[in-house]
Amino acid sequence: MKKTICLALLAAFISYTHAQQITPTPEQVKMLTSKWTGERFADGRPKTSDRLLERLKNVSLEEAWGYLRNKGYQNQFEGDWMVIRPDSVMTGRVVTAQYMPLRPDFDSSVKANGKAEGRIGAPNSWPIDVLQNGDVYVADSYGKIVDGTLIGDNLGNAIYAKSHRGVIFYGSVRDVEGLEEIQGFNGWIKGYDPSYIQQMMLAGINVPIRIGRATVMPGDVVLAKKGGIVFIPAQYLADLVLNSEFVMLRDDFGHQRLREGKYTPGQIDQQWTDDIKKDFLQWLGTQKDLPMTKKELDDYMKERNW
């Protein structure tokens, strides 16, 4: 079975590169994200829940990172960013773009194919055209700062109008002051420069990309905070959020009982006794503003390994 999937992915990639498609077909995107079993957008990307994206904002980077590490995903975090609004949080669904140093023959083929597909304007505007509400434009521009500015304030306004989010660029932007004036827009970037984009080309939209030490797929979910970014495979979003919310409740209970002097740090930090578990369950029953529904909590507790 695994061999069949690998051969299918290889065939899809060969087809993509041979035709020099701008964007993989929906079927190719589905193969790239085959672990997702839920609803999808027309372009094939996983359509994760808006409600979960909102709840994800309260999850810490450490919780998300730790959860994914336990699932075997050890390359989903990238830090050391310049953040336009460092005190805000951004979550959303990934639209990827791959940029490369300019090679005229390949660039000509991409532009010709884009024209045939009815794409308008410069290629660095094409990823913006496919954005939908809740999307985050994530681009690998190979860390280029000078002459590597993917957007300025004009394109920033277009991005926010379509997605109500912002950007994550492994590269640079220009017109930072103008971008700061776009209410709600945010960006995680590697630098700023007043220059225009030169000697770069768009190689693909919604293809697998590398963002620093992370591998990113179209339809991944972004958790971006001032400390860095975690890229979450769509199939793990619901369980990651619920698991993190439960850990936060468990921590709140432990902190409260420590302040009250009911338990010692040693009792809270080790495997809980049956008496502490019973106390925690009773405490849960007194909480009025749980982050999850009662059904979600009940279902989770059935599978919980203390």
Please, could you describe this protein's structure?
- The protein is of the alpha/beta class.
- The protein has 2 domains: 233 residues, Ribonuclease E inhibitor RraA/RraA-like (Glucose Oxidase, domain 1); 66 residues, no CATH class.
- Helices cover 41% and strands 18% of the residues.
- The longest helix is centred in the C-terminal third of the chain and has 24 residues.
- About 5% of the residues have low confidence.
- InterPro entries: RraA/RraA-like, RraA/RraA-like_sf.
- Keywords: Magnesium, Metal-binding, Methyltransferase, Signal, Transferase.
- GO terms for molecular function: metal ion binding; methyltransferase activity.
How many domains would you count in the coordinates? 2
Element order: H for helix, E for strand: HHHHEEEHHEHEEHEEEEEEEHHHH
Could you say what the CATH architecture of the largest domain is?
A: 3-Layer(bba) Sandwich
**What is the SS-derived class?**
alpha/beta
> CA-to-CA gap between the ends?
34 Å
Which structural traits does this protein have?
single chain, 306 residues, alpha/beta, Glucose Oxidase, domain 1, 12 helices, elongated
How are the secondary structure elements laid out?
Elements: H1 2-19, H2 26-32, H3 50-56, H4 61-70, E1 77-78, E2 82-83, E3 90-101, H5 104-116, H6 126-129, E4 135-140, H7 153-163, E5 167-170, E6 172-173, H8 176-180, E7 187-189, E8 191-192, E9 200-205, E10 209-211, E11 214-216, E12 221-225, E13 228-232, H9 237-260, H10 265-269, H11 274-284, H12 294-303
Parallel strand pairs: 3-4, 4-5, 5-7, 6-8
Antiparallel strand pairs: 1-13, 2-7, 3-9, 3-12, 10-11, 12-13
Helix pairs in contact: 4-9
Cofactor: Mg(2+)
Signal peptide: 1-19
GO biological process, one term: methylation
